[in-house]
C-alpha cells in the first residue's frame, strides 16, 4: 500500500456537471448552491461552463453566476470550455482556471463538439496560449481514454499521443472513462473531474517517458479515472 498518495484532491463539479444535465435551474439557486459548497471546506469547485446558450441553456447564465458568487479565498474555482470562443468568454469574465476537453476517439469528439480530435487539439493549443497570456491556467481533459461508445476500445497509443500533444502545447492533462452515448453532442466533459497548474506543478502523463500517473477516483458510472496532475507544493 506504499504506492498510495498521502493525500488526494477533490473537485466538486455538481454546479456544472450536475446542473448541466437537469432542467434549467434559476440563477439565484445556482449561486446559493456554489456559495454553500464553498463553505463546506472543499478546495476546488467547477462552477460553470461557457458554452453556446442555444446548445446548453442550463449554462446560459454562466457569466452572471460567476460574477455573483461569493468567492471564498480558500477555494479554487474553474470553468469548462468547449472551444476558443468559450475560453475567451471565461477569461473575459475573470476566470483564472479553465479546462478544455478533447476525446481520444474521433467519432465521440465529433458527436460532442462537432469537430475531429485533431481540430480540437489545434484549437486547444490556442486556448492554452491565450490562457497563459492572461495569467490563467488550463487543463486538458482527454475523454474516452478507456473506450468509446461509438468506436469501442481506443488504442493506448492514440490516447498517449493525444495526451502528449496537449502536454507539449503547455497543458496538464487528465484522462477518463468511456464517455457517453448518443445525445452527448455539445455536452463537453460530462464525466470530467480535472485540474492542472502551470510551472513548478507540471507533470506529464504517466504513459509518457519518465512520467508518473496518479489514480484519482471512480466516476459515477463506475469507471476508474486516472488524473495526470502535478504534485502540489
Q: What does the model show?
A:
Helices cover 30% and strands 18% of the residues. The protein has 233 residues and is an alpha/beta fold. The protein has a single domain, classed as Alpha-Beta Barrel (TIM Barrel). Strands 1-2-3-4-5-6-8-7 form an eight-stranded mixed beta sheet. Helix 2 (27-38) packs across helix 3 (62-68). The chain is globular and about 45 Å long. 45% of the residues are buried. The model is unreliable at 180-233 (pLDDT under 50).
Give the key terms.
single chain, 233 residues, alpha/beta, TIM Barrel, 8-stranded mixed β-sheet, 30% helix
Strand order in space, largest sheet: 1-2-3-4-5-6-8-7
First-residue to last-residue Cα separation: 23 Å
Number of domains: 1
Note poorly predicted spans.
180-233
Largest sheet: 8 strands, mixed
Rg from alpha-carbon coordinates: 16 Å
Structural class: alpha/beta
- CATH-scheme architecture: Alpha-Beta Barrel
What do we call the CATH homologous superfamily? Aldolase class I
Q: Report helical residue fraction.
A: 25-40%
According to DSSP, the number of beta strands is 8
Order of helices and strands: EHHEHEHEHHEHEEE
Q: Given the structure, what is the number of helices?
A: 7
